């Protein structure tokens, strides 16, 4: 402090008290812990009770940003931290919604439709306002099965980007018989107008009379890709059902119903696209 103009008497006392208060406030603010305790973040994400999560931390089964954490008091930011338990990603960002929907035939893969057709939004009203939610990719109006719905833009973008090649499994009903040469053609790849397409796997899973059911795994999502592929080999699709999208399976989810993804499914989807 410059001694020239040094305050005296009451002025000095007042200034001293003010400086002391400001100093204490600075220390308190500096020492204020940031983030939320790791075991609490894990509990909020559905991993288990806080006590169980403390045991996971003690056992070295929890990683934060790639490093094993054994410190019980460790605080993290759930919005930015990359947390793993036993190598599985645990998504801890708040406010995110991840749904699996079994889209029926005749429903358009949009949240609204100016033609008045039934939409995806009408099937998820039980999950509250659909503001901010959108479908991940599309199923055409005549196709049915698994459709993901979320407000997680980063995840949705990567799941639909061809560079990540997230597998999607379809059951395709066609009129038979199907020649072995046709199955071999599909497995080797088929040239379409916008480029080649090669399924990862193609196999017949059921056949009754002239009805043949094929299971097919693709790593891309070009518009009407399965229908165009089967048209090209001379077997137009009679019915198309998507049963899997990455780690998410349709299972016994009824047509027209939706459910929240499990934390394992959400974590697996994030891991599949490097998030």
End-to-end Cα distance = 52 Å
Order of helices and strands: HEHHEEEEEEEEHEHEEEEHEEEH
Average of per-residue pLDDT values: 85
- Helix count, per DSSP? 7
Low-confidence region ranges: 1-32
Biggest beta-sheet profile: 9 strands, mixed
Percentage of residues in strands: 25-35%
- Helix amount, in percent? 25-40%
Overall 3D form: elongated
Could you please describe the fold and organization of this structure?
The chain starts with 8 loop residues before the first helix and ends with a helix. Strands 7, 8, 9, 10, 13, 14, 15, 16 and 17 form a nine-stranded mixed sheet that branches. Strands 3-2-5-6 form a four-stranded antiparallel sheet. A two-stranded antiparallel ribbon has the order 1-4. Helix 2 crosses helix 3. Helix content is 27%, strand content 27%. The chain is built from seven helices and 17 strands.
Short description:
By secondary structure, the chain is α+β, with helices and mostly antiparallel strands.
């Amino acid at each position: 402090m410059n001694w020239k103009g040094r305050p005296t008497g009451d002025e000095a006392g007042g200034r001293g008290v003010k400086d002391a208060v400001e100093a204490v406030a600075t220390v308190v603010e500096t020492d204020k812990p940031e983030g939320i305790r790791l075991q609490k973040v894990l509990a909020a994400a559905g991993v288990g009770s806080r006590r169980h999560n403390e045991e996971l931390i003690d056992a070295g089964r929890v990683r934060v940003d790639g490093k094993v954490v054994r410190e019980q008091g460790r605080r993290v930011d759930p919005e930015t931290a990359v947390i793993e338990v036993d190598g599985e990603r645990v998504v801890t960002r708040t406010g995110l919604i991840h749904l699996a929907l079994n889209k029926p035939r005749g429903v358009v893969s949009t949240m609204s439709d100016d033609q008045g057709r039934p939409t995806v939004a009408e099937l998820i009203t039980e999950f509250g306002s659909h503001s901010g939610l959108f479908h991940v990719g599309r199923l055409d109006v005549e196709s049915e099965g698994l459709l993901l719905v979320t407000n997680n833009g980063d995840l949705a973008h990567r799941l639909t980007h061809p560079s990540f090649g997230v597998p999607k499994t379809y059951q395709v009903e066609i009129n038979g018989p199907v020649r072995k040469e046709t199955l071999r053609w599909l497995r080797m790849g088929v040239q379409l107008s916008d480029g080649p397409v090669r399924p990862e796997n193609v196999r017949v899973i059921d056949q009754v009379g002239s009805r043949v059911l094929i299971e097919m795994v693709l790593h891309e999502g070009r518009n009407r890709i399965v229908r165009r592929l089967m048209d090209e080999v001379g077997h137009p699709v009679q019915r198309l059902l998507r049963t899997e999208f990455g780690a998410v399976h349709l299972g016994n989810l009824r047509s027209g119903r939706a459910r929240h993804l499990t934390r394992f499914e959400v974590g697996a989807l994030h891991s599949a696209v490097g998030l």
